[in-house]
Design goal:
two-stranded antiparallel sheet; alpha+beta
Length: 219
């Protein structure tokens, strides 16, 4: 039986490495992501290595083994299906679903998740635009880039967010943005990388940090 704590570590490693395949995921990066002390992360990593869920050397890159990857993807699938259920069936807003889904994702029942998937009509994406892996752990291909990579004059559609925190999602909503919003990048300011966006008959200036947390599809 895999504990919820172990699952959380595996999911964190998966998400950190998925953001950038070339990114070095080390103990300090993992500790910062989980908001814990590096020493605590080191203790857990030794346990995960003993269980053959990760491979790493001290001060080296942390990688999931095939066994660890399978567990992480299954957890992500459960989490994103629960988020979708809460949003579609129980009227939770997209900034409310994460914390509740985090508790529900640790329920380990294959039949429950199969029936949940069926009930929802086999969704491909969760309320934040993230891909939901299928029952075999496969991810559908999704062409997307960060908003921060666009240049002035380019048009795009918002397809997902990198930061799923309630604070960030509330800010996105306050700006009047949502999934599928069509955006035109009118200007990228050289001084600080901030962007002037036009959408839905309004114009807003956003920071580079904001743009680095928004995924779009170029039109």
């Amino acid at each position: 039986m895999i504990s919820s704590s172990i699952e959380d570590y595996l999911k964190a490693i998966f998400q950190l490495s998925s953001e950038d395949e070339e990114k070095r995921v080390g103990t300090n990066q993992l500790a910062e992501y989980l908001q814990i002390k590096p020493a605590s992360a080191s203790v857990m990593l030794k346990k995960l290595r003993t269980k053959e869920l990760v491979s790493y050397e001290k001060y080296g890159r942390i990688e999931l083994t095939a066994k660890g990857w399978k567990i992480a993807v299954a957890l992500i699938r459960r989490h994103r299906l629960w988020e979708t259920f809460l949003h579609q069936k129980l009227n939770f807003s997209w900034d409310e679903v994460h914390e509740v889904a985090h508790d529900l994702e640790h329920i380990q029942s294959d039949k429950l998740i199969q029936e949940l998937d069926k009930l929802l009509g086999y969704p491909s994406h969760d309320p934040h635009g993230h891909i939901i892996p299928d029952e075999k752990g496969n991810f559908s291909k999704d062409e997307r880039v960060l908003l921060s990579n666009l240049e002035g004059g380019q048009k795009c559609r918002l397809v997902s967010v990198r930061d799923s925190s309630a604070e960030f999602l509330k800010y996105v909503t306050q700006l009047g943005l949502a999934l599928s919003t069509e955006i035109e990048v009118q200007e990228v300011r050289e001084f600080d990388g901030s962007l002037l966006l036009a959408y839905d008959d309004r114009a807003e200036s956003v920071s580079q940090k904001f743009a680095e947390n928004i995924f779009v599809r170029i039109l």
